[in-house]
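Notebook, bench 3.
Goal today: get a predicted structure for Ribosome maturation factor RimM from Aliarcobacter vitoriensis so we can plan the truncation constructs. The sequence was checked against the plasmid map this morning, with no discrepancies at the termini. Length recorded as 176 residues. Pasting the sequence as submitted so the record is complete.
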Amino acid sequence: MNNSIYVAKLGKAVGLQGHLRLFIDSDFPEQFKKGAVFTTNKKVLLKVLEYNPSRELIRFEDYLDMDTAKKLTNSELFTSIENTKESCKLKENEHFWFDLISCEIFENDLKLGIVKDMHRFPLNDYLEVSTDIELINKNLPKTFLIPHIFDSFIEKIDIEQKKIFVKNSFEILENS
């Protein structure tokens, strides 16, 4: 499994001291603290010198002027699963997307499928499920989406066992 997680994209250089616009694509802005290390899509290691959340600006060691910082524009920032688990604290019923992927989905002992991906939509996140072969053989769709909403659809997530227990989801599959 790929150990890198995409967390942000760098925009244009701002000002003369090497600040860059930061577009975060993560639920954990706290990971962009001084000293944090990220890898770009071009395999460049970057160490955070300072991060200003209110202005959405970031600055890295060794990129202290506009000309060197410009070279980083449009770079994508990645971190590792280990760093994410270390620097991002989860609340109750919160899970990392990478932990949810490949979990089996069950509704009342019926295996609906396996989480293939996660999707972010304006109102909710959704689990993309690859339907179990038994159900595909009954002419049900090969994939479907389950809203990631506790109590309405998600009853329990067991990361250790890689199982997610759901309700009202077989109906979604039937109507997909």
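The chain has two domains: 4-87, 97-174. Residues 81-87 form the longest helix (7 residues).
Flagging this for group meeting.
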